[in-house]
Write a structure and sequence with these properties.
Helices cover 24% and strands 0% of the residues. By secondary structure, the protein is mainly α.
């Protein structure tokens, strides 16, 4: 609603539009937070079967990534 009013040339505040909408009844869509796939504390950490060694003598020699979110 706010964006449409601004595009139409009105100068309004987001809070004013929210207040009027709350009084009149229409409600905007709630933006849901992003759900994470990994939740700490649920299970024990998986064993390191690959025996990764991420120590490096110089910068930019070893790169490490995490694919749990992909």
């Amino acid at each position: 609603m706010f964006i449409e009013l601004v595009r139409a040339g009105w100068r309004v505040s987001v809070n004013t539009v929210a207040k009027v909408m709350a009084e009149l009844g229409p409600a905007g869509r709630k933006i849901r937070g992003r759900r994470s796939l990994t939740r700490p504390g649920r299970r024990a950490a998986a064993p390191d079967f690959v025996h990764r060694d991420v120590t490096a003598e110089e910068p930019d020699l070893v790169w490490v990534g995490d694919l749990t979110e992909i």
